[in-house]
Amino acid sequence: MSMRIRTSALTAPTVAALAAGTVLTAPAAGAAPKAAAPKFLSASQLPPHPTSSWTAGPVTDGFPEALGLCVSTEGVPAYDHKHREFRTGAVQLTVVTGTAAQAKALAKHYDDLIRTCADRIEKASPDVEAEGRDYGKLPVEEGARIRGLHTETSWGATDIALLSVGQDGRTVTVVGWGQMGDFEDAPVAAFKKTTTTAVAKLY
After folding, report:
1. Nearest to 107 by CA among 147, 62, 159
2. For residue range 3-14, what is the model confidence (pLDDT) as tens digits?
3. Comparing C-alpha atoms, which of 82, 65, 149 is closest to residue 111?
4. For residue 127, what are the domain limits?
5. Residue 72 has what DSSP assignment?
6. Do the beta carbons of residue 92 and residue 199 sit within 8 Å?
7. Is the pTM for the entire model greater than 0.90?
8. Distance of CA 200 to CAs 73, 93, 96, 137, 143, Å?
9. Which residues pair with 86 in a beta bridge?
């Protein structure tokens, strides 16, 4: 997905620069035993789509480009990244770190990138106005937070995204949803339920 955020003025190098954040400590070799692979959301666990049913893609190794506008792996150690994209307009990333402390630091890192994303978009492109909103924390496992991002271009394209970061033990998940519209079109309550399910399914 492209998060339906029409920021075509942002080139790939610019997007990479936007996502730069603090460097995290790499996991020590052999620091933790291998755990069972985290489970992913199914299509039916996403907020209802207004016009069609969701379709889940395969679970794939690596970082999804769909999150690259606000979140990236820059400054992040070589953790085990996997993702699943949903057609059309959603994605889930899971990252297995070495310890719960490393997962906590990574979750904060990703949440900080999402929190500051609107400001970085506006600084990168004068053709885009962006606004972020904080929808609060969720009491699931080690915690999760929901944020919203609205963008509007000078030519009138307007898009809304919801993004969340959650942690269970040494695993972090990021869920993204997007479509055309503004904050009034965002299914916040349903997305909170989706995020809670996503974190609860990690192990």
Report:
1. 147
2. 443 333 322 333
3. 149
4. 56-70+78-200
5. -
6. no
7. no
8. 24, 14, 15, 15, 10
9. 56, 90
